[in-house]
Amino acid sequence: VESLRGADADVAHAVLRRAFGALIAARVVGWRHDELTAGEAGGEAGGGGGMFSAGSVDLAALAEASVDDATAFCREKHGAAPEVELVRVGEPLPPDAVLLAPLAAFALHEVLKNAMGAHVRRVGGDAGRLDELPPVRVSVGACGTTGFVKVEDQGGGWPAGTDGARALRYLHSTNPPREANYTYSRSFGAPFEGLGVGLPLAHLHASQLGGRLTLAGLPGRGVTALLCFDLRLGLGL
Fold it and tell me: Which of 70, 90, 154, 183 has the fewest CB atoms nearer than 10 Å to its CB?
């Protein structure tokens, strides 16, 4: 896709977005089918509740779990992970808030993973120097019926020629796949970065929840990623 230009590139990105959107929708239908037939989390089979139930959203707990997952993944691939500071800001979530947690968790994981990887790259892969950088800051809260998670890193920002819009394009990556060495093999497990699909998919998952992913970079400093979710919509498929 990155080798395409103009209308061809737009068509390619539209096709990828629609294809991944259809895949997400199919997964949601499958999850709900399992809930209704097995009666999981929603009482009797055929009843409501489960992952679509209202009044049970704890965005901070979801963010905390995502931080733990991303930290473990970063340590697996790089031997260490930066410190993360998680704070609650803004308003409490509405009591009738609805959020499909698996979609939000996917988007959060991708954004957190990128922030942690930026810190590792900035110190040249030297895990002992990660403490020289401020922690990755994760702010969680709500503004009316919009839930948000803001992730701020100090990983140095983007290289010249990249901005938030370009970073959200499929198959664009500022981080080439990591070279194998005596402590790391690309043959095992999922790649940490370099495929150019993580951020576009994070944005797509957020959009399925009535929200979006917005990116802003400050050269020489870092990147701020803001994930928003519509807590009334629940699912915008």
Answer: 183
Structure tokens at 231: 């807590």
Burial state string for 166-193 with b = 16 or more CB within 10 A and e = fewer than 16: ebbbbebbbbeebeeeeeeeeeeeeebb
Amino acid identity for residue 34 in this structure: D
Are β-strands 212-218 and 136-143 bridged in parallel, bridged antiparallel, or unpaired? unpaired
Cα dihedral 159, 132, 214, 2, rounded to 10, equals 30
71-98 tens-digit pLDDT: 999 888 888 899 999 999 988 887 777 7
Output DSSP code: residue 218: E
What pLDDT score was predicted for residue 168? 67
The backbone torsions φ and ψ at residue 137, rounded to the nearest 5 degrees and listed phi first, read: -105, 125
